Amino acid sequence: MTDRLTITTAAMASLSAAAATTATTRLLPSVTASASARLSYRSSLSLSSARSSPLLSHRFLPQKSSLRRFSSGGAGYSTVSSPKCAASSPEQLKSAREDIKELLKTTFCHPILVRLGWHDAGTYNKNIEEWPQRGGANGSLRFEIELKHGANAGLVNALKLLQPIKDKYSTVTYADLFQLASATAIEEAGGPKIPMKYGRVDVTGPEQCPEEGRLPDAGPPSPAAHLREVFYRMGLNDKEIVALSGAHTLGRSRPDRSGWGKPETKYTKDGPGAPGGQSWTVQWLKFDNSYFKDIKEKRDEDLLVLPTDAALFEDPSFKEYAEKYAEDKDAFFKDYAEAHAKLSNLGAKFDPPEGFSLDDSLPQGQPEKFVAAKYSTGKKELSESMKQKIRAEYEGFGGSPDKPLQSNYFLNIMIVIAVLAYVTSLVMN
Ligand code: HEM
């Protein structure tokens, strides 16, 4: 890879922590179980993040054998990579989301962040059960070996943009950060709210990256069949293929990256962001249904239509959805949001297993708490027959909608009953 990523201060700190830890191990080769248990959470974090950082060559990192010396009773990595640091903390994810919003405002990198999230998740193979061999949203795209896959050309720039945020929030995993960045970019570009969950665990080394060739080609001999082959392998269906392709409402294709598109058009020559490339839509930083409208109308030579985009209006099953989305933006937004959330979960291992949401305090999958007030203050209108019934009972007591009952009406009744009870007891005696 020609682009070399800068080693940040945080990464350097992690590196020195790792080096210090290795040195300690060398000085004290017989670290006992209790001593290993005393290792602070902070240093175990630095160590694990240093090991999994794509920024650091493996030559500088403690090897598995030295890490093992910290584990208690030969129980693998239990002390070093405790479950606590396997997945992101909600608070840090929320702060990271604010930083991503700032990044979007200053660099207009919405499209490439969406593509990054999609390419991390889109390697998923539903026919492989084991994690991480099955691929998917596991952060493997941070490693050079996967960034170098032909389909990922240019995505190193997205990783460079996110790395400072990753360095700032030590508990946030790459797998979560990539998906958080993508969903935030869609929402900030005017797209639908994506029902995301978090807690994805990262793969730890480049040897866990999927093999090249799992992502779709833009110009295969039979585009519709190819799309089905690739997306069905991910467990996605025709509706989801069409809805997700609508993400091309954002961004541009660059001949120097994918080989597709013009070097520049009237819509891209001035940026924003690095100028150039060919977009699918006129306003390529705005998320709406214009991708479907523009392909349908074929109205401008300056707008891109890849063979796989064209297939959406040629294949009878795809066409049904593409036509619908061109007409109905709300239908597109609804289906897109569902499909995007599904894509972002493909192949992911969550900790806790059900994941968690950032938008309410309830973990996913838990039933909503019963709130009586919610049901008693609902705006639902009473039916006419119910209104009549209530009116009849009300009038039976001498009230009417125009003449409300006296406030002491029930008090009087209670006094009468009490007097009657008293008199009865006197008579009985
Ligand atoms: C259906 C199969 C797909 C094919 C064949 C395909 C192909 C491509 C190609 C060739 C590019 C241009 C890359 C470049 O030159 O920089 C691109 C960009 C992009 N793709 Fe796709 N893609 C597909 C599906 C998706 C999906 C499912 C998503 C998201 C859910 C997506 C999101 C994007 C975005 C946002 C860009 C613009 C990136 C930028 O401006 O930097 N694509 N895609």
Short description:
The chain contains 18 helices and two strands. With 429 residues, the protein is mainly α.
* Shape by Cα distribution: elongated
Fraction of residues in β-strands: under 5%
Class from helix and strand fractions: mainly alpha
Unreliable runs, pLDDT <50, ≥5 residues?
A: 1-85, 361-381
Q: Give the spatial strand order of the biggest sheet.
A: 1-2
Please tally the helical runs, counting DSSP H or I stretches of 4 or more residues.
18
Question: What is the N-to-C order of secondary-structure elements (H for helix, E for strand)?
Answer: HHHHHHHHHHHEEHHHHHHH
Number of DSSP-assigned strands? 2
Gap between N and C termini:
106 Å
- List cofactors, ions and other ligands: protoporphyrin IX containing FE
Mean pLDDT across the residues is 78
Instruction: Estimate percent helicity.
Output: 40-55%
The major sheet is characterized as: 2 strands, antiparallel
What does the radius of gyration come to?
Answer: 30 Å
Describe the 3D structure.
The chain is mainly α and 429 residues long. Helices cover 47% and strands 1% of the residues. The protein has helices at 9-27, 33-37, 41-52, 64-68, 90-107, 110-121, 144-147, 156-168, 174-188, 223-233, 238-245, 290-297, 307-310, 316-327, 329-345, 372-376, 384-396, 409-428; strands spanning 252-253, 278-279. A two-stranded antiparallel ribbon has the order 1-2. Mean pLDDT is 78; it is low at 1-85 and 361-381. Protoporphyrin IX containing FE binds next to α6, α11 and β1.
